[in-house]
Amino acid sequence: MAFDLVLARARIPGEPDRLADIGIRDGLISAIEPSLGEAGPIERVDGLLVAPGFVETHIHLDKSCIIHRCNIVEGTLSEAISETARAKRAFTEEDILTRARRTLEMAILSGTMQMRTHVEVDPRIGLKGFRAIRQLARDYAWAIDVQICVFPQEGLLNDPGTEELLIAACRDGADLIGGCPYADTQPIAHIERIFAIARQFDLDIDFHLDFDLDASWMHLGEVVRQTCAHRYGGRVAIGHVTKLSAIPPHRLVEIARELADSGVAVTVLPATDLFLMGRASDHNVPRGVTRADRLTEHGVICSLATNNVLNAFTPFGDCSLLRMANLYANVAQLGREQDLERCFDMITASAADIMKLGRRRVAPGDPADLLVLPCRSPGAAVAEIAHPVGGFKRGRRSFTRPPAVLNAPPVTI
């Protein structure tokens, strides 16, 4: 049997003591055997881990890399929204394209091969962001698959003209629609309208939701209710939900079961949530990061994602999902191998489930979207932030990132 490429002597996730050859044909993993001989062009990986490409479920390419245009004084969510709203009035399609390209390339070089990006749509920005990101997705389709989620960051019913623009973007090919009820003066009606538009165009939904630490009220229950009413189970994700970090364990279990039963997935955004939450506390500051690992124990599909890069919501970032998984593990105080592997799963297989990408493992029949990582196991990759040294998109090398080299001085005899 001939292959387009053979990755020789690879370490396979789940089998740290086994080395095998991975045969790739027509963009798929075709065979995994102890040795495939000279059955095609050979790329030797010599004991490094070969893992699925990372899946980014929640990022904002359109407003990335604008930290120099923002004035951060309070570091609050409301300030981040207002500073971004002010800055984006000067955005052009070319400006968005230039900044988003930088961010997307950082993500590719960090191992991301699938991405869902949220793009703001409202009367101030119009469809500039949507058009720019759509162009970018076409330009980089050889390295990454990009889903575009259009959403109203500054509200919907309280912002005349926004709904018409959302509908125009959906009609023009947006992959899904998002909502931001906490930014609207009529949050319940906001949720209803997003479901209505989603059903009109048969699109999945991804909400920004419950983004504070006041657990006395939530919009989560309404999203769950409408998900069930519209029979949208498996088609709705919610991001942030930092309120869930502020409730006792028994209540978290109750909500986890509601989420699992309704088919609503959760994306946790550690960097942004850590940066923005707990600003009212001057000591014993709450982390504000929802425990995705505990939700998964009750059947909720969860992912870990980047959210923002170098802007007022998150004034840092390098688009490394491994770094994000490591950050989450630190915050959640996870150290066991199986817990670290669960973190890895939330940037690969579980994240792929949220985006409906099908199986994302290293097994015959799966896509050959593969990373080469300088470590023995997925848990070690998270623990060590083992930056990928190379990647293959649909079986074609998409990037190379050589490991750092120490240059010792010559030995004097």
What do you see in this structure?
By secondary structure, the protein is an alpha/beta fold. It folds into 2 domains: 5-53 and 360-400, Urease, subunit C, domain 1 (Roll); 54-354, Metal-dependent hydrolases (TIM Barrel, Alpha-Beta Barrel). It is 33% helix and 22% strand. It is built from 13 helices and 16 strands. The strands form 3 sheets. Strands 6-7-8-9-10-11-12-13 form an 8-stranded parallel β-sheet. The protein has a 4-stranded mixed β-sheet with strand order 3-2-1-4, with no helix packed on it. α5 runs parallel beside α6 (220-229) and α10 packs across α11.
Q: Rough shape? A: globular
Overall strand count: 16
Number of domains as seen in the coordinates: 2
Uncertain regions: pLDDT < 50 for 5+ in a row? Answer: none
Considering the protein shown, what is the CATH homologous superfamily of the largest domain?
Answer: Metal-dependent hydrolases
